[in-house]
Write a structure and sequence with these properties.
8 helices; 227 residues; 3-stranded mixed sheet; mainly alpha
Length: 227
Amino acid sequence: MWFFDPYYFIFMLPAILLMLLAQWYVSSTYRRWSRVPLRQGLSGAEVVEHLMRITGLRVRVEMVQGRLTDHYDPLSRTLRLSPGVYHGRSVAAAAVAAHEFGHALQHQSGYLPLHLRTLMVPAVNFGSQLGWWFIILGLILRVTSVAWLGVLLFSLGAVFAFITLPVEFNASSRAMQVLQRSGIVVAQDEARGVRQVLTAAALTYVAALITAVLQVLYFAFLVRRRD
């Protein structure tokens, strides 16, 4: 099994370290700007309500349990905010809420990468669950075509991570623009804080892409070595 294979750690150690660093950075950046009150005094939920009024876009806003579990569901057109963002009246809460609203704006405008990402979810779930079983089966039976099929299925996760990058960066760009245009963020230090929070969050998606690519490369190396 690959988790006893030293080559696995050679491939994955850089990704693991990068992911840990990205998670630490987003957590510390969010924590720092969570302590800085938003001058307008709006909570994350109120930021979304304000943005809906000025853009004319209506979405459902719900609270979801957890920390930094915020997301936009395009199927139900629902924006879900974690308690710290939903109730928080900080620069960080405004940044995260506006970022998720940015996804709703993408949905409204028919932003193609968001649509592609949504369509890929079932295939990615299928590939991530069954891909490595095909790899194991192919290696055990010495049928490399089955193993390569597993690699192909598993690589859907890397494609998904790649498509996610422009979706997240574009949502952050929309968030920054709409926050400033709406007058929610007016001071330079608030704008700097929003950018730092959004940049930190984006780095986690970069790390996720690198991790997914390195996993695929390892599996391809494993199958090629047994070929």
